[in-house]
Amino acid sequence: MALHLRALLAPEYDVHVVSDGRALMAAVDMEMPDIIISDIKMPGLDGLAAALNIRAKHSGVPFIFVSVQDDPTIIKKAFAEGARGYVIKSDAGDELTSAVEAVLGGGRYLSSSARGALRSGTV
Predict the structure, then answer these.
(1) Where are the domains of the chain?
(2) CA separation (Å) from 120 to 10, 40, 62, 113?
(3) Are 71 and 98 in contact (CB under 8 A)?
(4) Is the dihedral of CA 35, 58, 76, 22 positive or negative?
């Protein structure tokens, strides 16, 4: 999936791919990115925990989560912990570039399926 997301963004952005949350933290320490796009479920340290660690050191780096997780509780938790965007993986092909543009422009982004999950879910 990471390679697919890189292919979506590579024509316009320089994209680096890592395999897990610890590698994400190390990559951010080595080269400060303009934006971080991360899954929530990753081997070892999950994306939410990695985001908390990264934001403690680099509070200005915006995060977008791309995940299969459409549980309203998880979506709300991601935003409560500092995410600026949330894209359900099935929406990524159509919406990831828009999410990146919105977040880099200082806004927030919630994909159509994530909005639907929040409307239909109870928390």
Answers:
(1) 2-86
(2) 34, 21, 27, 10
(3) no
(4) positive
Looking at every residue in the chain, the average pLDDT score rounds to 92
Contact yes or no for 88/114 (Cβ under 8 A): yes
Q: How far apart are CA 95 and CA 100, in angstroms?
A: 9
List Cα–Cα distances, 57 to 10, 35, 119, 120, 123, in angstroms: 27, 15, 34, 35, 31
Instruction: Give per-residue pLDDT as tens, 68-120.
Output: 999 999 999 999 988 999 999 999 999 999 999 999 999 999 999 999 999 98
Taking a C-beta distance cutoff of 8 angstroms, is the pair 65, 95 a contact? no
Task: Tell me if the domain spanning 2-86 has CATH number 1.10.10.60.
Answer: no
Kind of pairing between the strands at 109-110 and 36-38: unpaired
Residue recorded with tokens 């994400």: 24
Q: Would residue 106 be called left, alpha or beta, if left means φ above 0 and alpha means ψ between -120 and 50 degrees?
A: left
